[in-house]
Amino acid sequence: MASYIGALDQGTTSTRFMVFDNAGQVVSAAQIEHRQIYSQPGWVEHDPEEIWRAAREVMQQAMAARSLAAADLAAVGITNQRETAVVWNRKTGKAVTNAIVWQDTRTSDYVSDLARQGGQDRFRAKTGLPLSTYFSSLKIRWILDHVPSSREQAEAGDLLFGNIDTFLVWHLTGGPRGGIHLTDVTNASRTQLMNLETLAWDKELLDVFEIPEAMLSKICSSSEVYGHVKEGPLRGVPIAGILGDQQAALAGQTCFRPGEAKNTYGTGCFLLMNTGTKPVQSNCGLLTTVAFKFGDHPANYALEGSIAITGALVQWLRDNLGLIGASSEIETLARSVEDNGDVYFVPAFSGLYAPYWKHDARGVITGLTRYANKGHLARAALEATAFQTREVVEAMERDCGRNLELLRVDGGMVENELLMQFQADILNRSVVKSSLKETTSLGAAYAAGLAVGFFKNTDDLCQKWTAARTWTPKLDDGRRQEMYRQWKKAVTRSFDWID
To answer: Is residue 229 a contact partner of residue 247, using CB atoms and an 8 Å limit?
Structure first.
């Protein structure tokens, strides 16, 4: 019997391949970053060919590092940056243009036009999502409207659409030579084209967004054998799990029961709470989405609070302002001052996501005086992540009618001690880090492993979860409330910046 399970994790800034044992421990890993392409203000693109090359390279590197053969893997799961849209030619496998990334705001005029006809929430009942530049639907429409001859090709059945999971599975299973065109319910739920109740593409939505159905893939569960890898070091290995990255982190944190929640701190911040087998519509600016669907079991749903810019703000301070030489230096710089000096940083670089959904907001720094220095900016940047998380937690509690007892956390920023302590302080509840660090990749591995019997069931997976670190609140309540009041005031200054 195979000893390991693999996970291909294609994220916003890099692609990783990880191999896990049955205890969920990392056996081997490889990672390659890819370019962020900013060709115009508000545009964010990736090169799909670069991502596909990186996927092949990291699989080769991770397998070679431990002299592993395909037979050593029971299956491979895939997790991916969601909403990022790729349109490619089914005959050549080549994308018609760069992938449009989830952060991209070029479709804001479409959002305004559609909202005027029926309001920002006109599709929320069906999809759980407001009109926004965030989701895949309008990215597809933009490509069809702006890339020459693409709409004609799509209507003729020559073009395929997929988020990155679909693009990778198609290539891994043969590409132009019989590649399988499919996605799972979690990724489909982020297109704004799938009906949450039926878990199928919705004809009315396709008509409104002017997208030919022939472009779309088959929707499958998150855990089943879809096909087998056709070539390379994983040749013959079954592809048996697909989860969007935040749903994968929810599974990796074993939040399989209603009421359990996790927050992932990455490029953006994504807080998901499992709400059970019935979708809960939000009245507080959150998204209703599919959490996972394992095989023939009913789908579980989640409420999600999506924050566009968190870790990306640290990268911005590094790359655009040169305040730090490496992202890891942000904590040292922030600790050079005792507090934020009354400086608040609202990083609405691509508008505000949950709970506001204001695509015309833009980033602001408030409270600046001559006293403020780069340490205060660094501290305000870290605190922005925690403040935005509190806003989402409060919205989630109002929608669900229950209080969140503790918050499970993961992602690169959880290594920042200052941030995690402030997160506990401003939330006034415990923040807990899992001992199994790579929760996103692990969730994809769990989904694949469940499909092939490598893991017995979700109860088996819950037994593997243990806490590595817990942060408890230490901030005076009066100071907590005053800081949060100032933050909320700063947020209002970012509103309506784009006319």
So the answer is: no
- What is the C-alpha separation between 279 and 290, in angstroms, rounded? 8
pLDDT band at 438 (very low <50, low <70, confident <90, very high): confident
Please give the order of strands across the beta sheet that includes 300-307: 287-292, 300-307, 269-276, 261-265, 406-410, 430-434, 467-471
What pLDDT score does 307 carry? 87
Q: How far is CA 326 from the centre of its chain?
A: 23
52-56, 165-169, 303-307, 422-426 — which is least confidently predicted? 303-307
Cβ atoms of 291 and 262 closer than 8 Å: no
The predicted pLDDT at position 245 comes to: 92
Quote the pTM value.
0.87
Task: Quick: pLDDT tens for 222-231.
Answer: 999 999 999 9
- Computed over every residue of the chain, the mean pLDDT equals 94
Q: Stretch 36-62: mean pLDDT, rounded?
A: 95
Please give the torsion angle defined by the CA atoms of residues 111, 113, 117 and 122, in that order, rounded to the nearest 10 degrees. Answer: 0
Give the model confidence (pLDDT) of 476-489 as tens digits.
999 999 999 999 99
Cα–Cα dist 323/131, whole Å? 36
pLDDT at 437 over 80: no
Q: How far apart (Å, rounded) are the C-alpha atoms in residues 375 and 381?
A: 10
Q: What is the CA radius of gyration of the chain?
A: 22
pLDDT for position 10: 97
State the pLDDT at residue 120: 86
